[in-house]
Amino acid sequence: MDSRGYRMGTGTVAESEVLGVLAPGGMLTAGQIAAEAQLTSWAVRRAIGQLESRGLIVANPYQARWSITPRGRSLVSASKGR
């Protein structure tokens, strides 16, 4: 991890935490993600925006819930193998 809080291959610590919360499956709201990851709502919203732009998570727009994509799941699996 560097001084900005980035982890190799996964982005920020907050992004890694969000992916970790979503990895088991299901669709969670930003509030649920924040509570489970013990992050501020601001940090979660920023991480969600970055992860979505990279295709690692997707939203269900009708319920404002987020889930991990197969690509995101692969990234989580790869980082656990280190």
UniProtKB/TrEMBL annotation:
Q: Which GO terms describe its molecular function?
A: DNA-binding transcription factor activity
Taxonomy, top ranks, is: Bacteria, Bacillati, Actinomycetota, Actinomycetes, Mycobacteriales
Species for this entry: Nocardia terpenica
InterPro entries cross-referenced by the UniProt entry = WH-like_DNA-bd_sf, WH_DNA-bd_sf
The name under which this protein is listed is: MarR family transcriptional regulator
